[in-house]
Structure formats: C-alpha cells, structure tokens
Design brief:
By secondary structure, this protein is mainly alpha-helical. It has eight helices and two strands; from the N terminus they run ααααββαααα.
Amino acid sequence: MTASRNPDFGILLVLADQEFVRELRASMAAQGFDEQGRSDGFVFRTLGATPMTISALAERLGISKQGAGQIIDDMERRGYVVRKPDPTDGRARLLHLSERGEAALSTARKFHQSYERRLRKTHGDAAIDAVRNVLAAMVGEDRTTDPHFRALMY
C-alpha cells in the first residue's frame, strides 16, 4: 500500500490557520495594533457583542476565572479593555472594550473581510462557499447556532 500523495488534511487546516493569523497580526501591526495576545481576538469579539463579568467571559471562553483575569489584566494594561460598575449589581464590574479595543476589533473585522474577498477573487465564489460549508459542518450546527459562539462569528 502506498501513502497518499495528498498532504494531511489536519495539517493543512493547522497551517492555513497559522498563515491566516500571521497575516492578520502583520496587518494589525501595520495599523498600530502591534502588541496582540493570543486570546485577544476572542475577547474582542465576545466583549464587542456585550459587556460581561470576568466570570461570564471565562465561561464563554472555556477557561478558568483566573486565566480570564490574567488575559483581561494584560488587555487592560495595553488599553483594550476597561472595567465599569455593573448598573444592576453594585458588587460586579463589567468588562467593556475601550475605544482602542473597538478600533482593534473593527480593524480585525476589515482584515477578515478583505482576506475572504481576496480568496474569492483568486479561487471563485463556488470554491470559497464550499470551503465555508465544509468548515461550518466540521464545527457543527450546535456550535454555529449557540449564542455563545455566534458573537464570535459575526
């Protein structure tokens, strides 16, 4: 039996993700957002949808409260996140994107859109629609329709 001449599918997915992230980081850096952390994009998208507590963010991201606290402390230090009192619970503090955080999210979203437009121009709408359908099927309908994940996708 001979080995397939096609590259391993899983490795292609990982390498494609790495290339996308590399280009995203380069684009963000060129626009003044050069100190991006690994989790920043998820936090930007999540808080961009709605302010929330660190506990809620930790649950949404599937990490510990301590881990979320470390990420938020770092993002706050870099000027992307601010903490404000929760108007419905005087003991709680809600996380909000700062103006810089909103600008970074907008910049990242524009990159995502231009990246897809470039792929469509190179490979055609049908090919990109097919890739999008395969990726959505791989993720699963339960995750693409889950309100927690929908905030990340739009």
